[in-house]
Design goal:
Elements: H1 2-21, E1 31-38, E2 41-48, E3 58-62, E4 72-75, E5 81-84, E6 90-97, E7 103-110, H2 134-156
Antiparallel strand pairs: 1-2, 2-5, 3-4, 3-6, 6-7
Helix pairs in contact: 1-2
Amino acid sequence: MRLRFFLNIEFLCVLISVALTLPGIAMAHGTGYRVLQQGKAVTLECYYSDGKAISYAETYIFSPEDSELEHQNARTDKNGRIAFFPDTPGTWRVTVSDGMGHKIQGQVQVEPESEQTSALEVTPRDPNSKALSKPLSAVLGISLIFNLCLGVLLVRRKNPLGPRHRPSSEPDHLRTGSE
């Protein structure tokens, strides 16, 4: 019976480990964005750390003059892009949220009209992004799973120190075999 219990726990731990390490099920990833310019319009391209576009994400763009009321609100297209026409120079704040916990809070520096002929600065990654590399994320996830399984096994065990360290109700001098 006891062997059967441990086999069930081990099977459950292996099953959970396999399920959580399958690609796409529990793969956490960060976000990033690039700022592009086409004429007087500013175009942002938003993506996950694995390169996939953040499609149809809710987007708010705030002008340097008013940080409370958005200048524009929209959604990214299927390629993760959004465009807006800035009407004043300065630092524009952009918030993009996919509705599943991933959020970009970026800034776009818009130069005055005469200097706007040069390309805007390209930002390859959101500086607020705290994404880990894929291999490190996988190792940490697997480690977490095995540590949780080990913890469950130790808690379920009746006597974690083994039979030698089992406390006895008899005093030492009354035990058989010791004098």
